[in-house]
Amino acid sequence: MKAIGLDIGTTSISAVVYDSDSDEILLSKNLPSGGFLQSPNAWERIQDADKLAALAEEMLSELLGLYPEADSIGITGQMHGIVYTDRNGKAVSPLYTWQDGRGGLPYKYGESSASYMTRVSGQRLSTGYGLVTHFCLNRTGQIPKEATSLCTIGDYVGMRLCSRKTPLLHSSNAASLGLFDLRKSAFMSGFFSILEMDAGMLPPVTPRLEPLGRYHGIPVTAAIGDNQASFLGTAGFSTDAILVNEGTGGQISVASLNPFTSENIETRPLIDDKFLLVGSSLCGGRAYAVLEAFFRSYAKAAYGKDEDQYYVMGQLAEEGAALAGHSSMLVETAFSGTRSDPSKRGSISGLSEDNFTPAGLVYGTLSGIADELFRMWLEIRDSAGVNPQALYGAGNAIRKNRVLKRIFEEKFGLEMQLLPQSEEAACGAAKAGTEILY
C-alpha cells in the first residue's frame, strides 16, 4: 500500500511517498515555502495561505504523476497558526503563523493578551496560539467580515484538495489553537462569550483519523499536527520512545495514555486515546542559526565576504567537544523567551580564559540547546512516571550536526535513531493516511 504525505512547514513544504508494506519512503520532495509576507510590524509573522496551498497541490500532482496508484493522502503542517475562510471555503486572510507575536503585546492590567486569557480561562495559553491571535484580531476589528470559520494551514490545504466549504479539524490541530478540553476533545466554547468572541467560528473537531474527501479519487485524511506527525513518522504508535525534534523551534515528545500538564509541559492529543507529553523551546535549533549570523557578520567585517559559516562552526564544535569535560561555558539559549515566560532571554556564564573561545561558544550553544529540552524530559520522567527505552531524533539541526546528536545521546544515555530520510512529519502524515483505509 502506498500513501502520500504532505507537510506544510514554516519555511518549506515537503512530500513523501510511503510504502506501508515495506515501511520505506520511496520518494521525497521539498520546496521552499516563500517565507513571510512583509509587514510594518516586527512582531507580525504572516504567510500567504493560498500560495502555500498552491505549492502543496503542485507537489502532490508531481508525486501522483510518478505514483498514480497511491492509495491515500495524509496532511500535516505547522500548528498553532490560523487562517480565516469564508462560506465557500476560500481563504480571506493570510496565515497568522505560530511565530506571530501580537499575543505577547501589552493589553491591559499590565498583561499581554496571552496572559490575560490564561488568567480568565485557567488554561495555559501562549503567544502564537491560534485563539490568542483570534482574540487580538477580534478586539481590534481585524477579522475579515466574510470570515465564517478558522482553521490551521494543514486543514486549509485539505479543504482545497477536497473542494470542501467547511474545515474539519483533527483534535491534534484543534488543541494547538488553545481553549481545548482534552478529555472531551472539544473547544471550551463557554469562555468565548467571556472573551467576547464568536464561538460560531469554531470548526467541528474529530479525535479520529477521518477522511475529508477525495482528490482525483484518492481519499484524503483530516490533517494532523506536525508534532504528532513527526512522532508517528519516527516512533510510530509506540509508547516506549522519546522524540527530540530540533528545527526552527525545539520539542521533546513522549507518548502516554495519561495526560500530564505543568508550567513547562503540555499534553497534546495523539491518535484516539493516546496523548503526547510535550516540552517546547521557542528558539530551539534557531539558536545555532543566530550564532552563525554572529560569526558571519564578523567574517564580513574582517574580510569583506558574506559567506556561510556552518562548515567552520562544525569544525569548532568538534574542537569544543574535545575540551568539554575540562571547562565549558554555559549558554542559555532562550533567545526568544519561553512558552511560560516570553520576556526571558538567553545568557552566557561560566566564562574563563580557557573556554572563552569560538570553539567554546559553539559547543556551549549546542549544549544549551540540548539542556533546555533535557530539563523538560526530567520533569516528564519524574512527574508522569514514564521510562521510554528508545530515543529518536528529527529536524535538520540534529540531522546536520553530529555534535548536537552526540550531546543528546550523552544526556539521555541512549543511542539516537534517525530516519534515513529527513521528512519525518510528511512520513507521519502518510502513515496516518493509511489508517483510514482499514
Please state the structural category.
alpha+beta
Estimate the mean pLDDT confidence. Answer: 90
> What best-fitting shape do the alpha-carbon axes yield?
globular
Kindly state the percentage of residues in helix: 25-40%
* Residues in β-strands, percent: 15-25%
The oligomeric state of the chains shown is: single chain
Number of helices: 13
Uncertain residue ranges: none
> What is the end-to-end distance?
11 Å
Question: In total, how many beta strands?
Answer: 25
Question: Could you give a short account of the major beta sheet?
Answer: 6 strands, mixed
Task: Trace the largest sheet across and list its strands.
Answer: 20-21-19-18-24-25
Calculate Rg over CA atoms. Answer: 21 Å
Structure explained in plain terms:
The chain is of the alpha+beta class. The chain is 35% helix and 23% strand. The strands form nine sheets. It has a six-stranded mixed β-sheet with strand order 20-21-19-18-24-25. The chain has a five-stranded mixed β-sheet with strand order 3-2-1-5-17. A hairpin with a 3-residue loop joins β18 and β19. α1 packs across α4, α7 crosses α13 and α10 runs parallel beside α12. The model has no long low-confidence stretch (mean pLDDT 90).
Q: Main traits of this protein?
A:
single chain, 438 residues, 5-stranded mixed β-sheet, 25 strands, 23% strand
